[in-house]
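EI: anyone free to look at a 152-residue chain?
SC: sure, send it
EI:
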Amino acid sequence: MLKIAYHPIYCHPLPEGHRFPMLKYDLLPQQLIHEGTCTNENFFEPLRMLNEAPILAVHTPDYFYDLLNITLKTKAARKIGFPLCEVLVEREITIVDGTIKASEFALEYGISMNIAGGTHHAYTNKGEAFCMLNDQAIGARYLQKKGSQSKF
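SC: here you go
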């Protein structure tokens, strides 16, 4: 069964005229249901709070805690491209949890996805291009630490 991570926090309100198409995160699940590709049973809701260990296995503590506490330097925050706030960071942590759970579902069912996953522009010590945390790297590292990499 296809399992898809989705949470309403994925569609974070941005200032009018912002170039990032945030609305797509609400539209994608609706479209998948509308066209009959998926039903409500395909979707699961990730947690809005995550154990820090998987994140710190990929990102430096200085960067992660600056992000968490909204204390990034102005230049670093500007490179991310979003106006930083606590809810936006909570959104990013929720995306990470969705990717970790989708990784586990992929091993169980052979396929899974995260509607807002793929934030691959984040480095270990900085965010960039609308990506604050690299959920793909975090998910892969999580599976490695679990010993699941041999199942791919």
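EI: The CA atoms of residues 56 and 64 lie 7 Å apart.
SC: 👍
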